Amino acid sequence: MVKIRLRRTGKTKQPSYRLVVADSRSPRDGKFIEIIGHYNPIRTPKVLEINADRARYWLGVGAQPSDTVVNLLKRQNILDGEGKVVAVPVEG
C-alpha cells in the first residue's frame, strides 16, 4: 500500500520533515516515490508547504495519509473535517 507520511530530516534536536509518498513497507527515512511538501515545526511561525495538486492526486489514487499528515492536510484545507478531499475551487 502507498502511504503519505513524514520523513525526518535535520540535525539532532532540530527536526524538520518532508511529506513523502512511499510504499508502506519502506523504512521511515528510506526509499520514497515523491516529495510533496515540507514541514518545519521548530520555526516561529511553523512552516508548512504542501503541493496541493500532487497531494490531491495521490489521495485520489488511493494513498493513505498517516494520522499526523491528516492533521497537516486539514490545516492546508486539502482535507475537510471528515477526512475527505476538498475540491479545487474553480476560477471563472
Keywords:
globular
Per-chain topology:
Elements: E1 2-11, E2 14-23, E3 34-40, E4 47-50, H1 52-60, E5 64-65, H2 67-75
Parallel strand pairs: 1-5
Antiparallel strand pairs: 1-2, 2-3, 3-4
What does this structure look like?
By secondary structure, this protein is an alpha+beta fold. Helix content is 20%, strand content 36%. The chain is built from two helices and five strands; from the N terminus they run E-E-E-E-H-E-H. The protein has helices at 52-60, 67-75, and strands at 2-11, 14-23, 34-40, 47-50, 64-65. The protein has a five-stranded mixed β-sheet with strand order 4-3-2-1-5. Strand 1 (2-11) and strand 2 form a beta hairpin. The radius of gyration is 13 Å and the shape is globular. It starts with a strand and ends in a 17-residue tail after the last helix.
